[in-house]
Amino acid sequence: MYTIWMRQHNLIAEKLSSVNPHWDDQKLFEEARRITIAQFQHVTFNEMVPVLVGKEQLRVMGIKLQNNGYDSGYDINIDASASNVFAAAAGQFFLTLLPSKFSIEDKKFQTRSESLLKHFNDPALIYEKGKIDGMLRFLLNAPIEKPGLHSSPLLKTAFQKKDEADSVDIIAMVIQMGRDHGLPSYLNWRKFCKLEEVNSFLALQSIFKPSVNISDFERLYESPEDIDVFVGGLSEQPAKGSLLGPTFACLFAHQMTQTKRGDRFWYENFVSPSAFTVQQIDEIRKTTMARIICDNTDTVTHVQHHAFSLPDDYGNCPLSCNSTGIIQPFNAKSFKDEEKLTTLPITKETIEKVIRLGLKQWQRYEEGEGRRISAQIADTSPSALLSHALLMAPKKESIDIARTASVLREATNILVTGNGLNKDEKLPDLDVATLQKILPQIDIGSVIGNFTPFLARDPLPKEQCLPEPLPCDHTSKYRSYSGWCNNLKNPKFGNAFTQMRRLLDPAYDDGFDTPRTRSVLGSELPSARKISNIVHSDAPKFHVKFTHMLMQFGQILDHDMMHSPISRGPKNTILNCSSCDSAQTLSIHCFPIKIEPDDPFFPAKHNDGRPRCMPFARSLLAQVSLGYRNQLNQLTSFLDASTIYGSTQCEANKLRLFSDGKLNFTDLGFNKEALPQGNQERDCRSNLQNRQRKCFVAGDERVNEQPGLTAIHNLFLREHNRIARYLKQINNFWTDEKLFQESRRINIAQLQNIIYKEWLPVVLGCQHMEKWGLMPQTSGYFEGYDDQCDATISQEMSTSAFRFGHSLIRGVFSRMNDQFQNMTNHVNLTETFSNPSPVYDKNSGHMESILMGLIGASSMAFDRHIVTAVRNHLFAKPGGPLTGLDLPAVNIQRARDHGVQGYNAYRKYCGLRKASTFSDLRDTMTSEAVTALETAYSHVDDIDLFPGIMSESPTRGALVGPTLACLIGEQMQRLKKCDRFYYETNDAMVRFTPDQLVEIRKASLSRMICDNSEYAVNIQPNVFLMPDDLANSPMSCSELPEIDLNKWVDRDYCLVDERVVNRGKTKRITPCVTCTCTLEGPECHSITIDDCSRLLRDYSLSDIQKDSVCLIQCSQHLKKL
């Protein structure tokens, strides 16, 4: 162990040196020492101490480690010195664990036994090759002796030299040492630990182990009061869940408490200046003894996660040292010293100059771009270009942000290149990675405001769509529509119209703006369409387990979290980036997708000989600081049903009926509560076929993208209005605003419960749900809210990870009746983009049959293959061949546009081994998938994130593979932990009452469909899984758990057993029970009865006999009557 921890120090020093090459030897030594001590503390208290003393002692003594953040338990008055009883008795228990012999196990697990006595004070064995590793294998796989009144015979002859009679009895010496140190006897320490008193030897029988002979104690000691603490402590039966008996567990835990609370340098403390940062503590918390052993041995390849427990095949199976998901290696990144890079020699005057030059450059670009667009022949007929551009249209607020970002883009370019700057204004010669970090830190707030008048185009809206009141009202239990003030300390966290965050630094070709187009080998990356053809070709295979609803719910969830609009030209003009040279001839925001000569569907050239490309416009600029290009999310990041309610006050107002708390709707006769009709969809193809079939309006303008999505939108609208109607019935004095906000609040909570309880476990599997802390609680409140946490959607989630559902899409959506029987006129996806006509088809069951088809038909299998309907015909012009887009190609191109790093970088980020060759990918992929990637790419580091994660095989019990599960888990964890309004929150100002939360936890998508569908009569409990004859057998809707909305009845009194208790008052409900009426409902407690005779005088015998609380307390008295 000494050797292993010495090696650990040196390993830490090496890693620190790699990230801080400017540190000298002293700095490296002290920091490595500080970290190694912290890791030693963490392993001791996180892994060893719980085994020795048990969880109960951890709780009683308050020595359980923090899961996150800092510990505030340091006490300046506590002396951390080792206590006498710990040093001379309790801490010596380990001597009884030692075996007489130990074995050296080689890497083939062949053993060679050695006598322990032979190697006392003789480290010669350690000098032999492989013996340290062999010894560690023995320690990891051999059971210990249990603590008790026994010891190895060798300890009685310890340190005996060859051919000499003198030796040492170590156990006797420990007993003698306790007497020498004046330790009180065993029974005194039991009193110290507040344990049951012992007054005789006989009383020890129930305390000591059955194997202990009490008569031996009677013979050795005159009185129980004489028993030595070391002997008595080892004799005790172990406490439950503990290796030690109650007395030693208490003494050991007491010492650990003193050690922890009396140490100013304890690794979890926030005492300045010795405190670690939160990120550094999080890194230390990853430390395990298993990882320490893995990192500091040569031939130990597998170690069980809990190194202090024996390995088994279930909860503690040996893991490969190359597996970094559970036994994670130390990452020194958070210990990188960047103090020297926090400032730049740049003045306010220089900043004003570069922004002024940037403004002029942007104005020149926009004028030229406007002329080029005007010279184009406009085509306003339905097409993939038009549909996609309208679907990804920026809102006015987004366009305003983009203008500022465009100027800052030009200003950044001027700063980096030095063009137009004097010698003393230019930046020092720094690498791209450094500039990426420090340019955004430059304060431009006092400067950019001077240029705002030159950027604004439109007058401010008369109606305030994005109110940002300060200070935040922490007492309001209703979310704002934009996400403002969800986080009271950082009101903008997770807001609509903010830039996305990055898990890894951007990978732009120039470090700042140019899309990722170059291979690590220097050549050009393959076309996104070529990769799609090789990796994502259609291979029809249906999933046997999951329904098509899994995909459909995932899409509306995606639309609830993220919408990154694409760039427009001057005056909000759509950019036609279909020409292969459009980036040079039309707009710098064009990034068309090249069609290769061997493309199996699209000709490489037009009829006139021009090369063919798919149109692709880059995402709208959004960075509001100097530095690299960033993109915008014009929705809130939170899971707040913005698809239903919108992301601004103005959008929400347009969706409301402003009567009885309801959302606006359309009565179609056959669908009496359809979505409202309107002109939100500017490419409404159903309207071209029939003027009566207008497109629908919702909180997210993509509602008409395809009929399955429209049906789910309609379902949630109906659920909101169903809730509002019931709340109006039980609280008829509530205003429209109160009814609307409370219905919205309940609907959002149900959505979150369905996500985390039903949908996400299917996608991630139980292991990843557990790893990321995503499972909802079965009772009580969630206490994990972190006000330092930012819920903002990551680039990786938006551009790649949450597009995994594209693999699940069917080319034809089934229609089914109420018996799950197929109906005619299934929905052909190719014909229904931006076309909700099937929802109007009364004879084919309109939205009802589509809804039943989603839960009765299976999805496509999750794999790298994607159906032709979206790979060749996405948004294709009706009746027009070769006019569609390729969805996986768009996904790949979008990640390159956003500067997202390649797949291999995220393998490493997620704890997998970074691949050096394509063959290294076989740990997560099939041979066929690896072959496809190797055919498409020149180097393993070139693989784009989307095709990489889609090529992984699912992990056990999950839909998706490990890297994809990691990226989704990371995001969903933040959407839970960073949301002050998360439905299980314990925040007294915004939480549901305990009774209400119990009801919310009953919510399921199956019940929601039952409550809002005419066809749903019998339905499987989990609609994301195919119905079967056993666990998910269809049942009557009446048998599914139903939310009791009566828990939201609003009265200034409580009803308890038909008795009225006014709010704030307490009333005796039965002779032995009182209830208090609180804001969260009645709280009742039993009364302690001191005088049963008086109780009988105050209450009738019959009332007392009906009250079980009375009967329990006064049973003897009542028997006498």
From TrEMBL:
One of its GO terms (molecular function) is heme binding. The keyword DNA damage does not apply. Keywords: Heme, Iron, Metal-binding, Oxidoreductase, Peroxidase. Gene3D superfamilies: Haem peroxidase domain superfamily, animal type. It comes from the Eukaryota. Pfam families: An_peroxidase. InterPro entries: Haem_peroxidase_animal, Haem_peroxidase_sf, Haem_peroxidase_sf_animal. Heme b binds at H806. GO terms for biological process: response to oxidative stress. This is Uncharacterized protein. It comes from Caenorhabditis remanei (Caenorhabditis vulgaris).
